[in-house]
Amino acid sequence: MRKTLWADRNAQLDPETDHAEIYRNLTLYEFPWDFNQSLGFALFRTYAVPSIGSLLDATGQFTGACQKRYDDTGILLEAPLVSGFTSRDGKVAIRRINQMHRMYDISNDDLRYVLATFVVVPKRWLDDFGWRTLSDGELRASVNYYRELGRHMAITDVPDTYDGFATLMDDYEAEHFAFDPGARRVADATLALMASFYPRPAAKGVDVFSRALMDPPLLAAFRYGDPGRAARRASTAALRARARLLAHAPSRRKPIFVHDLAKVKSYPGGYDLAAMGTFTPGCPVPHR
Question: Domain boundaries in the chain?
Fold first, then answer.
């Protein structure tokens, strides 16, 4: 199977009308690992905004059920991508996401920022560590996909270009990144969960590797120690070596879904989208 299979297929599609199919090809076939890692890192960045990180800490979900929170997020976000926004699963997943957000006082600005990270961070990850970069059409499809997700989540004033998303993300982080004890607890719990996916002797290495991929403003916001130049070089070299190997591998024919990943452990017997996440009776966060 030629390595250009998905790039060729996406080039034949219209990013304005076929954006969901293009984005699905990217995440399930062409770059499943890269998108999984980069979208997880995108969410991690959002914790450094105190209004987001402190709220996540206040829910108790990260200190009490971090694995389930991780699994639910990935599965709910993937459902509309796989089945479509107007499908039964897509509607149920979006409804659950919106119901959870309405339980808390979340500003439109914070929601727009999170949406921007989903567009910008994967693109930058592939620029640095992917075996190829996104084409202009694929990048436009990514923008359109998240604009559609934003509409279904009632997020307003969403940028209509990649540059608009990138400016939004960079400016928001420059203005809002700051230390918050609750946000630090959420970040620590997330890193501990990441380390738990590997054998115990590798846990320290996972922590160093993770911090080596963080930029100085993100490290400063969590008050994490800089892992050092050697760790940064080693982490970057490992990811780029992987990219060089993948450039010579055949195109993937079988999709990789979030619920099939070994690190998703909460639902060995299957899951019900409508039952995922948190519900109002258990909401521990005071509302204004």
Answer: 8-251
